[in-house]
Amino acid sequence: MTTIHAVKTGTIRIRPSHRAGNMSLPLWRRRLAIFLDRQWTEPLPIYTYLIEHDEGLILLDSGESARSSKPGWFPWWSPFFQLALDIHVEPDDEIGPRLRSMGIDPGKDLRMLVLSHLHHDHADGLSYFHGVDILVSKQNYQASRGLKGALLGANPSKFPSWFEPRQAELTGPAASSFDHTLPLTSDGSVFAVPTPGHMPGHMSVVVRTPAVSYFLAGDATYDEQLLKERIVDGLSGDLRVSVDTLDRIAAFACSEPTVLLPAHDPLAEQRLEERITLTDPSA
Ligand SMILES: [Zn+2]
Protein backbone atom coordinates (compact mmCIF):
# COMPACT_ATOMS: atom_id res chain seq x y z
CA MET A 1 0.00 0.00 0.00
CA THR A 2 1.23 3.50 -0.81
CA THR A 3 0.86 6.29 1.73
CA ILE A 4 1.63 9.98 1.34
CA HIS A 5 2.58 12.25 4.22
CA ALA A 6 2.57 16.06 4.04
CA VAL A 7 5.67 17.17 5.96
CA LYS A 8 5.61 20.90 6.71
CA THR A 9 8.92 22.72 7.03
CA GLY A 10 7.74 26.12 8.29
CA THR A 11 5.77 28.88 6.60
CA ILE A 12 6.35 31.66 4.10
CA ARG A 13 4.52 34.89 3.40
CA ILE A 14 4.80 36.27 -0.12
CA ARG A 15 3.38 39.33 -1.86
CA PRO A 16 -0.17 38.89 -3.25
CA SER A 17 1.14 40.04 -6.65
CA HIS A 18 3.61 37.14 -6.49
CA ARG A 19 0.96 34.57 -5.53
CA ALA A 20 -1.34 35.66 -8.34
CA GLY A 21 0.24 37.65 -11.15
CA ASN A 22 -1.62 40.31 -13.11
CA MET A 23 -1.68 38.41 -16.38
CA SER A 24 -2.57 41.46 -18.45
CA LEU A 25 0.87 42.97 -17.74
CA PRO A 26 4.11 42.17 -19.57
CA LEU A 27 6.67 40.13 -17.65
CA TRP A 28 8.83 43.00 -16.39
CA ARG A 29 5.80 44.85 -14.99
CA ARG A 30 4.43 41.69 -13.39
CA ARG A 31 7.75 41.21 -11.63
CA LEU A 32 8.11 44.91 -10.75
CA ALA A 33 4.66 44.76 -9.13
CA ILE A 34 6.03 42.20 -6.64
CA PHE A 35 8.71 44.63 -5.42
CA LEU A 36 6.25 47.53 -5.16
CA ASP A 37 3.61 45.46 -3.37
CA ARG A 38 3.39 46.29 0.37
CA GLN A 39 0.83 43.62 1.27
CA TRP A 40 1.54 40.08 2.47
CA THR A 41 -0.37 36.86 1.96
CA GLU A 42 -1.33 34.82 5.00
CA PRO A 43 1.53 32.55 6.17
CA LEU A 44 1.59 29.75 3.58
CA PRO A 45 2.85 26.27 4.46
CA ILE A 46 6.11 25.01 2.98
CA TYR A 47 5.26 21.37 2.35
CA THR A 48 7.46 18.52 1.30
CA TYR A 49 5.74 15.21 0.56
CA LEU A 50 6.94 11.80 1.67
CA ILE A 51 5.77 8.86 -0.42
CA GLU A 52 5.80 5.54 1.40
CA HIS A 53 5.89 2.97 -1.40
CA ASP A 54 6.61 -0.78 -1.35
CA GLU A 55 9.88 -0.05 -3.18
CA GLY A 56 10.99 2.48 -0.56
CA LEU A 57 10.60 6.05 0.61
CA ILE A 58 10.57 8.85 -1.94
CA LEU A 59 10.68 12.45 -0.72
CA LEU A 60 9.58 15.37 -2.89
CA ASP A 61 11.52 18.54 -2.06
CA SER A 62 13.67 19.38 0.95
CA GLY A 63 11.93 22.50 2.29
CA GLU A 64 13.40 25.65 3.80
CA SER A 65 16.18 26.15 6.34
CA ALA A 66 15.91 27.87 9.75
CA ARG A 67 19.00 29.82 8.72
CA SER A 68 17.01 31.54 5.96
CA SER A 69 15.91 34.26 8.39
CA LYS A 70 19.55 35.02 9.35
CA PRO A 71 21.49 37.77 7.56
CA GLY A 72 23.71 36.46 4.79
CA TRP A 73 21.67 33.40 3.88
CA PHE A 74 20.20 35.00 0.78
CA PRO A 75 22.05 37.25 -1.73
CA TRP A 76 22.17 40.74 -0.19
CA TRP A 77 21.84 42.38 -3.60
CA SER A 78 18.55 40.71 -4.54
CA PRO A 79 15.40 42.80 -3.94
CA PHE A 80 13.35 39.63 -4.33
CA PHE A 81 15.06 37.85 -1.44
CA GLN A 82 15.42 40.99 0.69
CA LEU A 83 11.99 42.56 0.21
CA ALA A 84 9.50 40.05 -1.10
CA LEU A 85 9.78 37.07 1.27
CA ASP A 86 8.94 36.62 4.95
CA ILE A 87 9.97 33.15 6.09
CA HIS A 88 9.43 31.44 9.44
CA VAL A 89 11.26 28.18 10.01
CA GLU A 90 12.25 27.00 13.50
CA PRO A 91 15.23 24.58 13.75
CA ASP A 92 12.82 21.71 14.52
CA ASP A 93 10.76 22.58 11.41
CA GLU A 94 13.61 21.68 9.09
CA ILE A 95 13.20 18.51 7.04
CA GLY A 96 15.94 16.63 8.94
CA PRO A 97 14.30 16.89 12.39
CA ARG A 98 10.85 16.41 10.84
CA LEU A 99 11.87 13.10 9.24
CA ARG A 100 13.70 11.95 12.38
CA SER A 101 10.54 12.59 14.41
CA MET A 102 8.88 10.06 12.06
CA GLY A 103 11.65 7.52 12.74
CA ILE A 104 13.38 8.17 9.41
CA ASP A 105 17.10 8.87 9.00
CA PRO A 106 17.24 11.41 6.15
CA GLY A 107 20.74 10.38 5.01
CA LYS A 108 20.12 6.62 5.07
CA ASP A 109 16.49 5.65 4.76
CA LEU A 110 15.34 7.32 1.54
CA ARG A 111 15.22 5.53 -1.77
CA MET A 112 15.26 8.87 -3.54
CA LEU A 113 14.89 12.62 -3.06
CA VAL A 114 13.13 14.30 -5.99
CA LEU A 115 13.27 18.07 -6.36
CA SER A 116 10.39 19.73 -8.19
CA HIS A 117 12.73 22.68 -8.77
CA LEU A 118 15.62 24.34 -6.96
CA HIS A 119 13.97 27.43 -5.51
CA HIS A 120 15.26 28.21 -2.00
CA ASP A 121 12.16 26.89 -0.18
CA HIS A 122 12.49 23.52 -1.93
CA ALA A 123 16.27 23.11 -1.88
CA ASP A 124 17.56 24.87 1.27
CA GLY A 125 17.12 21.61 3.21
CA LEU A 126 19.56 19.70 1.00
CA SER A 127 22.31 19.49 3.64
CA TYR A 128 20.48 16.56 5.31
CA PHE A 129 20.72 14.35 2.23
CA HIS A 130 24.40 13.70 1.64
CA GLY A 131 24.73 10.31 -0.05
CA VAL A 132 21.09 10.10 -1.11
CA ASP A 133 20.06 9.56 -4.73
CA ILE A 134 18.82 13.06 -5.67
CA LEU A 135 16.90 13.74 -8.85
CA VAL A 136 16.21 17.09 -10.50
CA SER A 137 15.39 17.85 -14.11
CA LYS A 138 18.39 18.63 -16.26
CA GLN A 139 16.78 21.84 -17.43
CA ASN A 140 16.02 23.04 -13.92
CA TYR A 141 19.48 22.20 -12.63
CA GLN A 142 21.08 24.14 -15.45
CA ALA A 143 18.75 27.11 -14.87
CA SER A 144 19.39 27.21 -11.13
CA ARG A 145 23.14 27.57 -11.04
CA GLY A 146 25.24 30.70 -10.70
CA LEU A 147 24.00 34.26 -10.98
CA LYS A 148 21.24 33.26 -13.39
CA GLY A 149 19.87 30.84 -10.81
CA ALA A 150 19.92 33.47 -8.04
CA LEU A 151 18.07 35.90 -10.32
CA LEU A 152 15.41 33.23 -10.83
CA GLY A 153 14.88 32.64 -7.08
CA ALA A 154 17.28 29.75 -6.47
CA ASN A 155 19.98 30.01 -3.79
CA PRO A 156 22.87 28.18 -5.48
CA SER A 157 25.56 29.59 -3.15
CA LYS A 158 23.96 27.45 -0.41
CA PHE A 159 23.88 24.21 -2.39
CA PRO A 160 26.10 21.76 -0.45
CA SER A 161 29.55 21.29 -2.01
CA TRP A 162 28.73 17.60 -2.62
CA PHE A 163 25.50 18.43 -4.47
CA GLU A 164 25.64 16.69 -7.84
CA PRO A 165 22.10 15.48 -8.51
CA ARG A 166 21.08 13.06 -11.21
CA GLN A 167 19.81 15.25 -14.02
CA ALA A 168 16.57 13.79 -15.30
CA GLU A 169 15.23 14.01 -18.81
CA LEU A 170 11.56 13.16 -18.92
CA THR A 171 11.42 10.90 -21.95
CA GLY A 172 9.29 8.04 -20.59
CA PRO A 173 5.81 6.97 -21.69
CA ALA A 174 2.85 9.35 -21.87
CA ALA A 175 0.30 9.48 -19.06
CA SER A 176 -3.07 11.06 -19.73
CA SER A 177 -2.48 14.73 -20.62
CA PHE A 178 1.30 14.49 -20.26
CA ASP A 179 3.16 13.43 -23.40
CA HIS A 180 6.19 12.28 -21.46
CA THR A 181 6.89 11.08 -17.93
CA LEU A 182 9.73 9.61 -15.92
CA PRO A 183 8.86 6.47 -13.94
CA LEU A 184 10.25 6.61 -10.39
CA THR A 185 9.20 3.11 -9.32
CA SER A 186 9.45 -0.12 -11.29
CA ASP A 187 5.69 -0.71 -10.97
CA GLY A 188 5.11 2.64 -12.72
CA SER A 189 2.73 3.91 -10.04
CA VAL A 190 4.98 6.85 -9.12
CA PHE A 191 6.28 9.05 -11.92
CA ALA A 192 7.47 12.56 -12.63
CA VAL A 193 5.74 14.79 -15.19
CA PRO A 194 7.00 18.01 -16.76
CA THR A 195 5.22 21.09 -15.37
CA PRO A 196 7.35 24.01 -16.57
CA GLY A 197 6.42 27.68 -16.21
CA HIS A 198 6.99 28.65 -12.57
CA MET A 199 10.62 27.83 -13.35
CA PRO A 200 12.28 26.21 -16.40
CA GLY A 201 12.26 22.43 -16.07
CA HIS A 202 9.90 22.39 -13.07
CA MET A 203 8.49 18.91 -12.55
CA SER A 204 5.68 17.39 -10.52
CA VAL A 205 5.19 13.87 -9.19
CA VAL A 206 2.13 11.69 -9.67
CA VAL A 207 1.30 8.84 -7.30
CA ARG A 208 -1.35 6.45 -8.58
CA THR A 209 -3.19 4.33 -6.02
CA PRO A 210 -6.20 2.06 -6.60
CA ALA A 211 -8.59 4.66 -5.18
CA VAL A 212 -7.23 7.99 -6.45
CA SER A 213 -4.17 9.61 -7.98
CA TYR A 214 -2.21 12.24 -6.10
CA PHE A 215 -0.68 15.12 -8.03
CA LEU A 216 2.26 16.51 -6.06
CA ALA A 217 2.49 19.81 -7.87
CA GLY A 218 5.44 21.62 -6.28
CA ASP A 219 4.93 25.25 -7.35
CA ALA A 220 3.29 24.49 -10.70
CA THR A 221 0.35 26.14 -8.99
CA TYR A 222 0.23 27.60 -5.49
CA ASP A 223 -3.27 26.35 -4.74
CA GLU A 224 -6.30 24.63 -6.19
CA GLN A 225 -8.31 27.82 -6.64
CA LEU A 226 -5.58 29.42 -8.75
CA LEU A 227 -5.46 26.28 -10.88
CA LYS A 228 -9.22 26.35 -11.44
CA GLU A 229 -9.10 30.05 -12.34
CA ARG A 230 -6.03 29.50 -14.59
CA ILE A 231 -4.09 32.23 -12.76
CA VAL A 232 -0.31 32.14 -13.07
CA ASP A 233 2.04 33.44 -10.38
CA GLY A 234 3.81 36.78 -10.80
CA LEU A 235 7.28 35.25 -11.25
CA SER A 236 6.59 32.92 -14.16
CA GLY A 237 8.62 33.87 -17.21
CA ASP A 238 6.31 32.69 -19.99
CA LEU A 239 2.55 32.81 -19.42
CA ARG A 240 1.83 30.51 -22.36
CA VAL A 241 4.02 27.76 -20.89
CA SER A 242 2.54 28.23 -17.40
CA VAL A 243 -1.07 28.18 -18.59
CA ASP A 244 -0.38 25.09 -20.71
CA THR A 245 0.92 23.39 -17.56
CA LEU A 246 -2.21 24.39 -15.60
CA ASP A 247 -4.41 23.05 -18.40
CA ARG A 248 -2.54 19.75 -18.50
CA ILE A 249 -2.95 19.31 -14.73
CA ALA A 250 -6.66 20.10 -14.99
CA ALA A 251 -7.03 17.68 -17.92
CA PHE A 252 -5.20 14.99 -15.94
CA ALA A 253 -7.63 15.48 -13.06
CA CYS A 254 -10.56 15.09 -15.46
CA SER A 255 -9.21 11.80 -16.76
CA GLU A 256 -8.76 10.17 -13.34
CA PRO A 257 -9.83 11.15 -9.79
CA THR A 258 -6.97 13.31 -8.58
CA VAL A 259 -6.06 14.90 -5.25
CA LEU A 260 -4.02 18.05 -5.88
CA LEU A 261 -1.14 18.61 -3.45
CA PRO A 262 0.83 21.82 -4.16
CA ALA A 263 3.75 22.84 -1.92
CA HIS A 264 2.11 25.98 -0.52
CA ASP A 265 -1.61 25.26 -0.46
CA PRO A 266 -3.08 25.77 3.04
CA LEU A 267 -5.84 23.25 2.21
CA ALA A 268 -3.55 20.52 0.86
CA GLU A 269 -3.26 18.56 4.11
CA GLN A 270 -7.02 18.44 4.55
CA ARG A 271 -7.49 17.29 0.95
CA LEU A 272 -4.86 14.59 1.47
CA GLU A 273 -6.52 13.32 4.67
CA GLU A 274 -10.04 13.38 3.26
CA ARG A 275 -9.01 12.36 -0.28
CA ILE A 276 -10.90 15.26 -1.84
CA THR A 277 -10.37 15.18 -5.58
CA LEU A 278 -10.22 18.15 -7.91
CA THR A 279 -13.51 17.39 -9.56
CA ASP A 280 -15.47 16.84 -6.33
CA PRO A 281 -18.40 19.27 -6.39
CA SER A 282 -17.56 20.18 -2.78
CA ALA A 283 -13.90 20.93 -3.58
ZN1 LIG B 1 9.19 27.97 -6.48
How would you sum up this structure, described in words?
The two termini are 25 Å apart. The longest helix is centred in the C-terminal third of the chain and has 17 residues, at 239-255. The protein has helices at residues 16-19, 27-36, 79-83, 95-100, 120-123, 138-144, 146-151, 224-228, 239-255, 268-274; strands at residues 3-14, 44-53, 56-60, 85-88, 110-114, 134-137, 166-168, 182-183, 190-194, 203-208, 213-218, 258-262. The chain is α/β, with parallel strands linked by helices. The radius of gyration is 17 Å and the shape is globular. Strand 5, helix 5 (120-123) and strand 6 (134-137) form a beta-alpha-beta unit. The strands form two sheets. Strands 4-1-2-3-5-6-7 form a seven-stranded mixed β-sheet. Strands 8-9-10-11-12 form a five-stranded mixed β-sheet. The model has no long low-confidence stretch (mean pLDDT 96). It is built from ten helices and twelve strands. Helices cover 25% and strands 24% of the residues. The chain has one domain (3-274): Ribonuclease Z/Hydroxyacylglutathione hydrolase-like (Metallo-beta-lactamase, Chain A, 4-Layer Sandwich), CATH 3.60.15.10. It binds zinc ion. The site of zinc ion has 4 residues, from loops.
Number of strands: 12
* Main sheet makeup: 7 strands, mixed
CATH architecture: 4-Layer Sandwich
Gyration radius from CA atoms, angstroms: 17 Å
Structural class: alpha/beta
* Cross-sheet strand order for the largest sheet: 4-1-2-3-5-6-7
**Helix share of residues?**
25-40%
User: Which cofactors or ions or other ligands sit in this model?
Assistant: zinc ion
